[in-house]
Amino acid sequence: MRRGAKVVSKRVDDFKEKFQHKLGRVLDPIAETMTVPPDHTFGACSHPEDYGAGDLIYNRLPGEYLRGKDRQRALVAAVRHHLKKVNCESFDTLLEAFRHYDKKGDGVIDKAELREACDQANLHVDEKLLDQLFDYCDVDNDGLINYLEFANFLNWKDKVPLKEYEERVIIKGRKPDCANTAEATAEESEPTLLIKPEDIVLKEPGRSEKTLRTLLRPSDKVSNHYKTTSSEISAVVGAVPSMCYPICGVPTIRSDIPAPRIRRISDRTNYGEEGNAYSLLHPTIFGQKGVYERDFFKTRSKKEIAEILCNIGVKLSEEEFENVWKLASEKHHRGEVCVENIRNVLDELQHADRIKCKTTT
């Protein structure tokens, strides 16, 4: 028997084979007993909506939804980034880059000129991707890319400053008052008007550098009938305040019931003693010193009260202190005294003295 084959129970062998881990397969011991295909999904299948959160925020139309177009948008962004990089490294000004694209010299770029510029930049795109790129840059949907659209979507206009002679060329087309013949030749060959004067704005307020204004695509603009929740509830100055609204349901801060002296661990109810964001930004003097509500309402002896009053600078004679202690102890049915009771009694006595002084004068 020592040299013979090892005897293994068939039941044990079947069990090991069924529960054997296999690479790339999920361990499912009862797969043989199921009457469903391997790719079956149990439960109700939830189909995703055609729109996403951004489509809801910008109130886009069904034909302008961006959900599911991630690959298309990524390809367009990659082509634009490549063209921006080539324009920034190959040309000194936006005007020079625009002249490179505008082969016909008519002041606009059509689809054929854009395709030729992509080929010269070693960027071979198919017809579908070229149409998507052109539609992205053509904001006014006139079938052409003008100078302002070219500067916004195919260039880093913030990295290329707008020079003085370039500004005169793209607005008025007149010769500069300088001896540079190259600039004059460039101006004469350009159209008389590429953009409007109001399209040139200051790069930053207070600085002399200028740049072209930023264009917004129609999908980035909020619709005219777009309304916020704040405007729907009339949360504006002069409207009906929220205090006049009828209150329904259980309040968030349970100030209507007394807070328990000993809270359960599972009790997450806010009884009004918890701080909010305002208390964190503007803590009280008691919070800064580490004095809390329990310290005010804690029962204290006459000696402790006297020491507290002495430490905070309240000077009372022995007779006055006895009177204050007597009045404070009468406010509790057991005669217990806390710091809050002493403070209330002192305020009442001070208020009574003021009234007495007013009546005598």
From TrEMBL:
Residues of the EF-hand domain: 89-124, 125-160
CDD domains associated with the record: EFh
Classification via InterPro entries: EF-hand-dom_pair, EF_Hand_1_Ca_BS, EF_hand_dom, EFHB_EF-hand_C, EFHC1/EFHC2/EFHB
Superkingdom of origin organism: Eukaryota
Keyword line: Calcium, Cell projection, Cilium, Cytoplasm, Cytoskeleton, Flagellum, Metal-binding, Repeat
Molecular function per GO: calcium ion binding
Annotated PROSITE patterns: EF_HAND_1, EF_HAND_2
Name the record gives this protein: EF-hand domain family member B
Organism: Rhinolophus ferrumequinum
